[in-house]
Specification:
Length: 386
């Protein structure tokens, strides 16, 4: 898994060719809006790590010098978060209150280190566990606790938990050599990620101070990885191999264990994000013939392809392909991620109109004749938030 960190150092060259993703001009629809997050005056943007309120997004964008930089987007303004002295930085996560962004950045000497960015402190180098490379993927509100992975002196990759007072602490493994942490819950009680087990396979884990690292198992295949968790830590989502070698998104609960969320068509599925209440899951399906497509899952609607679901509820995706969901708001009414628009890689933000709103056509005016017409269209077609 050390290659996961090392890959960050080569990502700049692959940035333009990567399957990063979509962006549409902001427009109102009968059942929601899709918003163009723009770029840092460069060619492409990606990411889509969202706060609980669904109003702030973090990601990565090309700059005028064609160097990818981490950004924070709010109220239509994309802010360049800079670097740790090198040419490149990449955002991998944001706190639920939008006050902290984490990721990895090049140093002046070429190594990549985990960073924590806050409005008052700017970008801070979090160091490593002794090796040359590290990356941060999740953070608590305010940036008080950061999780990610770092190389050890010998090159092995280990999950870490960082605090300002204690620095970077190795979380260990499930018996193998390497591990990586991907997210921490808002209550600061649990961390999730993946770790090698004895024999070398990789399993999803949930870590706590009380219990340490707990193996969440698999869906019958050899490996799994946890990507995100609910606010209490009682719901974890990720991806697991199934018998036969295919991969499926999973939702794990402390009461019911690991659940296969299925897929769409002839695809593998991957869960990357979950709402604070654990109800709405976001990610993507990877069709063997058609590439990746953004997906959402809830118990009520099952798994849907956003490229099919959004037009069906009145959101125009002309010239756009949504490829993955990386963030889900607390209430599940806003999702963000990556896609392509006119073949250009862009970050996107989709906000659904909740059932019960009286602004049914999404134009900002409540209770108009157009809202009444939109209401009847909505109840006829079920077009409201998933």
């Amino acid at each position: 898994m050390s290659m996961t960190i090392a890959a960050a150092a080569t990502r700049a060259g692959a940035f333009a060719a990567a399957t990063i993703l979509c962006l549409l001009p902001s427009a109102a629809h009968a059942s929601g809006t899709i918003t163009n997050l723009g770029t840092l005056r460069g060619g492409e943007s990606s990411g889509g790590y969202i706060n609980n309120a669904g109003s702030v997004v973090a990601g990565t964008s090309d700059t005028p010098a064609n160097h990818p930089h981490a950004f924070r987007w709010s109220a239509g303004v994309m802010t360049d978060l800079g670097t740790l002295g090198g040419s490149f930085s990449f955002a991998n996560g944001m706190s639920t209150d939008a006050s902290a962004v984490v990721g990895t950045s090049a140093l002046a000497g070429g190594d990549f280190h985990a960073f924590l960015w806050t409005p008052l402190g700017g970008m801070v180098d979090l160091g490593t566990l002794g090796g040359a490379l590290s990356t941060a993927r999740g953070t608590s509100p305010g940036g008080g606790v950061v999780v990610g992975s770092s190389d050890l002196v010998g090159g092995e990759e280990r999950a870490f938990r960082w605090t300002a007072s204690g620095g970077m602490v190795d979380l260990g493994t499930l018996g193998g050599q390497e591990s990586t942490a991907n997210a921490i819950n808002i209550n600061l009680t649990h961390i999730v990620g993946s770790s090698e087990v004895v024999g070398g396979d990789e399993h999803a884990f949930r870590w706590s101070l009380a219990q340490g690292m707990i193996d969440l198992g698999t869906l019958g295949g050899p490996d799994s990885s946890a990507a995100a968790l609910s606010s209490t830590g009682s719901v974890v989502v990720g991806t697991s191999a199934i018998p036969g070698g295919d991969r499926r998104a999973f939702r794990w609960t402390s009461s019911g264990g690991i659940q296969n969320l299925g897929t769409i068509g002839n695809s593998d599925s991957f869960a990357l994000a979950v709402s604070a209440n654990g109800v709405t899951v976001g990610g993507y399906v990877n069709d063997r013939s058609d590439g990746s497509r953004a997906m959402l899952w809830t118990q009520a609607i099952g798994m849907v392809d956003l490229n099919v679901y959004l037009p069906a509820i009145g959101i125009d995706l002309t010239h756009c392909r949504l490829k993955r969901v990386n963030g889900v708001s607390s209430d599940g009414l806003t999702v963000s991620g990556e896609g392509t628009f006119d073949d250009e890689a862009r970050a996107f933000l989709v906000t659904f109109s909740p059932c019960g709103t009286v602004d049914f056509d999404g134009d900002g005016d409540d209770g108009t004749d157009n809202d009444l017409e939109a209401f009847f269209r909505r109840i006829a077609g079920g077009a409201c938030a998933p």
